[in-house]
C-alpha cells in the first residue's frame, strides 16, 4: 500500500480534533470537551500535545460528563472512525487546516480493482510534501494546503472515483523531490502568490517567536512547491479535474453496503444513466438488483462503499450533484438512533415530567417517511433540527445523571435500581422488565473484563428504546423495515422472528436442495464413469474375440503348414551317419542359437539356403513369420 495514504504528520492538529469531537459528541456534552482550554492551560502547550494526551486532558476536565464514551482511547478510536471520509474538511469547517483524513481505498464490485475518490488525491499531494527531505515542511504545509484546497474547490462533485495507480503517484513524488531544490521563482509568480497568501494570513497575528527572515524563507519554499504542484495538477487532468463527457474512463457510481444490503442513491443512478423516470429524489435508494434488472449498466463501474459507524454516530457520507454540491448525509435509520440517543442520554427527555411520546412521534413524522420499506438517506443536520423543534421548553428542566458503576461492575439488580433512581419507572412502568435481556447484551459487548459506567449508559438507553418501540408500533415497523432491529439490545421483533423462521425453513430447504444437487452430480459422475468402463469392457471383449478368431485361424494354418513341411523338401533328415567331412562340423540353429549336434534328429532344412534348424524351433518360428531366419527368403507354402 502506498506510503502516501497516511497523513500521520499532518493530522490530529488539536484544534481540528476539538472540532471533530464537537460534531461527534452529544449536544449536551460538547461543552465538557476541554471547556476551559484557553483559561486553564497554556494554549501553545496544548497545541504541542499528542492527541492521545489531549483526550485524556479533556475527559479529566469534563466533570464526569464524558463517562458514556468510555476511556480516552475508546473515544479517540471512535472519533477516528467518524471523521475519516472524503471531503471532511468541508463538513467540519476546517478548510484552513491541513487535510485531516487518510485517503480511503475502495474496490470495484466487478473485480475488486482499487479506486480512490478524486477529492482524496489532493490529500495524497499533501502527504507527498510531508515525505520530502527537509525540516521546515511542517511550517509551510498550511500555505501549500490552502492552494490545494483552492484547486479542489473546482469540483462540483466529490463523489467521482479514479483507479488507484500507485506507480503514477510515485512518479509525481519523484518529480516533486527532484524539482524542488532546483526551482527559482520568477518575480511575477512571486508577486501573484504573495498577494494570495497575504490575503489569507492578513488576520493571523504573528506569534511571539515570529522571525521575518524565517517567514520569508518558508514563504518562498511554499511558493516553489505550489508551482510544482500546479504543474502536476495540469499534467494530470484526468485525476484532478471533473470527468468530461468525452472521457474514456467509465462513469463511477457508489454501491452502498450495509450488512447484506447493497443499494445505490437514485440521484447518482439517474445522473450516471441519464434516466429520469422515477429516479429523481436526491436521497432515495434503489437496490443493486433493480439496477441490473432495469438498466444497461455495462459502461458503469460500481464502487463498493461500506456504511461505517462509530459507537455513537455514523460516519457522514458526501453527496453531490450539479445543483447541490458538497453536502453530507447518513442513513435514515442512523438519524433515528442518533436522535433518540440525544433525546435519552443528552437531554434526558423521558426523565422530565412533561415528556410526551406522542409529541416525539409528531416530530419524527415531519422528517421521516415511517412507512418506507427501502433504505434512504437524510442530511446530517436533520437531528439537530428535530431537537430544536420541541426541546426548548424542557432544556432547563433538571434531571438526574446516570451514576458511576461500582469498581467491580454492576448487576441486573443494579441496573433495575438505576432505572428507578433516574425516575424512568414513572413514564415506563414496564422498563425494569427489559433489564435482564438488555444486561445480557451489554455483557456480551463490553470492552473490558468488568462492566463500566459507559456500559451502564448503554443499558439505560436501550431499556428506554425497548419501551418506546413497544409503545409506538409505527416506529417499531420503521426500525424493522430499515433493518435496525438488531441494533436495539434485547429487542424482540415479531416480524424478524417470523422472517427468521421462514429464512430457517428456506435455509433448510436450500441446504436440502444443495445436497440433492450434489447427490445428482455425484450420481451422474458415477454413472458416467460406469458407462465409460462398460464401453472399455465391451471394447476389450471385441479385441479378445478378434484375437481368439485370429489365433484359431493361425493354429489351423500352422497345422496345415507343418503337415506340408513334413511331406515336402523340408523333410526330416533321419540319416544318422554322414560320410562328408562337413557333417562332422557342429552347426548352429539360428533360431535358438544352440548347436545342432551331429546326428541330432529331428531337424528341418530351408529349401533355399539349405540351412538346418531344430524342427521344434522351425515350427514355432513359422507361427509368427513367413521368412527364413537365415536368408529372409519366402518359404514356399507348398
TrEMBL record:
GO biological process terms on file: innate immune response
Official protein name in the record: RING-type domain-containing protein
GO molecular function: zinc ion binding
Gene3D superfamilies xref list: Zinc/RING finger domain, C3HC4 (zinc finger)
One Pfam family hit: zf-RING_2
Regions annotated as coiled coil: 502-536
UniProt keyword list: Coiled coil, Metal-binding, Zinc, Zinc-finger
Cellular compartments per GO CC: membrane raft
Gene (UniProt): Cnig_chr_II.g4345
Keyword Zinc-finger included in the entry's annotation: yes
Domain RING-type as annotated: residue spans: 589-632
Amino acid at each position: 500500500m502506498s506510503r502516501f495514504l497516511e497523513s500521520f504528520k499532518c493530522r490530529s492538529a488539536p484544534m481540528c480534533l476539538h472540532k471533530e469531537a464537537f460534531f461527534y459528541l452529544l449536544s449536551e456534552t460538547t461543552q465538557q470537551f476541554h471547556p476551559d482550554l484557553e483559561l486553564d492551560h497554556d494554549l501553545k502547550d496544548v497545541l504541542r500535545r499528542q492527541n492521545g494526551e489531549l483526550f485524556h486532558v479533556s475527559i479529566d476536565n469534563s466533570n464526569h460528563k464524558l463517562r458514556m464514551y468510555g476511556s480516552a482511547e475508546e473515544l479517540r478510536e471512535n472519533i477516528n472512525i467518524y471523521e475519516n471520509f472524503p471531503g471532511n474538511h468541508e463538513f467540519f469547517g476546517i478548510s484552513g487546516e491541513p487535510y485531516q483524513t487518510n485517503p480511503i481505498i475502495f474496490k470495484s464490485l466487478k473485480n475488486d480493482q482499487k479506486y480512490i475518490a478524486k477529492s482524496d488525491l489532493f490529500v495524497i499531494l499533501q502527504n507527498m510534501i510531508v515525505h520530502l527531505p527537509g525540516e521546515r515542511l511542517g511550517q509551510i504545509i498550511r500555505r501549500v494546503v490552502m492552494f490545494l484546497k483552492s484547486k479542489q474547490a473546482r469540483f462540483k462533485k466529490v463523489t467521482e472515483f479514479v483507479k488507484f495507480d500507485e506507480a503514477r503517484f510515485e512518479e509525481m513524488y519523484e518529480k516533486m523531490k527532484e524539482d524542488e531544490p532546483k526551482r527559482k521563482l520568477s518575480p511575477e509568480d512571486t508577486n501573484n502568490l504573495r498577494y494570495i497568501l497575504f490575503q489569507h494570513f492578513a488576520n493571523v497575528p504573528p506569534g511571539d517567536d515570529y522571525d521575518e527572515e524565517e517567514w520569508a524563507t518558508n514563504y518562498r519554499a511554499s511558493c516553489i512547491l505550489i508551482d510544482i504542484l500546479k504543474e502536476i495538477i495540469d499534467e494530470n487532468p484526468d485525476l484532478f479535474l471533473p470527468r468530461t463527457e468525452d472521457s474514456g474512463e467509465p462513469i463511477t457510481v457508489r454501491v452502498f453496503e450495509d450488512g447484506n444490503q447493497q443499494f445505490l442513491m437514485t440521484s447518482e443512478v439517474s445522473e450516471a444513466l441519464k434516466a429520469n423516470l422515477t429516479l429523481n429524489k436526491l436521497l432515495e435508494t434503489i437496490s443493486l438488483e433493480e439496477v441490473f434488472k432495469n438498466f444497461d449498466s455495462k459502461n458503469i463501474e460500481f464502487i463498493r462503499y461500506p456504511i461505517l459507524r462509530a459507537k455513537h454516530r455514523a460516519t457522514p457520507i458526501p453527496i453531490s450533484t450539479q445543483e447541490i454540491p458538497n453536502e453530507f448525509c447518513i442513513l435514515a435509520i442512523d438519524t433515528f438512533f442518533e436522535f433518540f440517543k440525544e433525546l435519552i442520554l443528552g437531554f434526558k427527555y423521558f426523565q422530565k415530567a412533561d415528556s410526551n411520546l406522542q409529541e416525539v412521534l409528531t416530530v419524527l413524522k415531519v422528517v421521516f417517511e415511517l412507512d418506507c420499506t427501502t433504505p434512504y438517506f437524510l442530511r446530517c443536520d436533520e437531528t439537530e433540527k428535530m431537537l430544536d423543534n420541541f426541546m426548548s421548553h424542557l432544556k432547563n428542566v433538571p434531571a438526574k445523571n446516570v451514576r458511576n458503576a461500582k469498581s467491580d461492575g454492576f448487576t441486573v439488580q443494579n441496573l433495575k435500581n438505576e432505572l428507578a433512581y433516574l425516575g424512568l419507572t414513572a413514564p415506563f412502568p414496564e422498563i425494569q422488565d427489559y433489564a435482564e435481556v438488555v444486561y445480557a447484551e451489554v455483557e456480551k459487548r463490553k470492552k473490558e473484563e468488568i462492566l463500566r459506567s459507559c456500559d451502564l449508559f448503554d443499558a439505560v438507553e436501550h431499556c428506554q428504546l425497548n419501551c418506546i418501540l413497544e409503545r409506538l408500533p409505527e416506529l417499531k415497523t420503521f426500525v424493522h423495515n430499515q433493518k435496525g432491529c438488531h441494533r436495539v439490545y434485547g429487542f424482540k421483533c415479531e416480524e424478524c422472528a417470523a422472517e427468521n423462521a421462514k429464512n430457517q425453513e428456506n435455509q433448510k430447504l436450500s441446504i436440502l436442495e444443495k445436497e440433492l444437487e450434489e447427490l445428482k452430480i455425484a450420481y451422474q459422475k458415477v454413472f458416467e464413469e460406469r458407462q465409460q468402463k462398460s464401453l472399455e469392457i465391451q471394447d476389450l471383449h471385441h479385441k479378445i474375440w478378434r484375437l481368439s478368431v485370429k489365433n484359431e485361424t493361425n493354429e489351423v494354418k500352422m497345422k496345415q503348414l507343418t503337415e506340408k513341411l513334413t511331406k515336402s523338401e523340408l523333410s526330416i533328415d533321419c540319416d544318422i551317419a554322414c560320410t562328408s567331412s562337413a557333417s562332422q562340423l557342429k552347426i548352429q540353429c539360428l533360431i535358438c542359437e544352440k548347436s545342432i549336434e551331429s546326428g541330432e534328429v529331428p531337424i528341418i532344412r530351408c529349401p533355399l539356403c539349405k540351412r538346418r534348424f531344430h524342427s521344434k524351433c522351425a515350427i514355432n518360428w513359422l507361427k509368427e513369420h513367413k521368412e527364413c531366419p537365415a536368408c529372409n527368403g519366402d518359404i514356399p507354402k507348398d
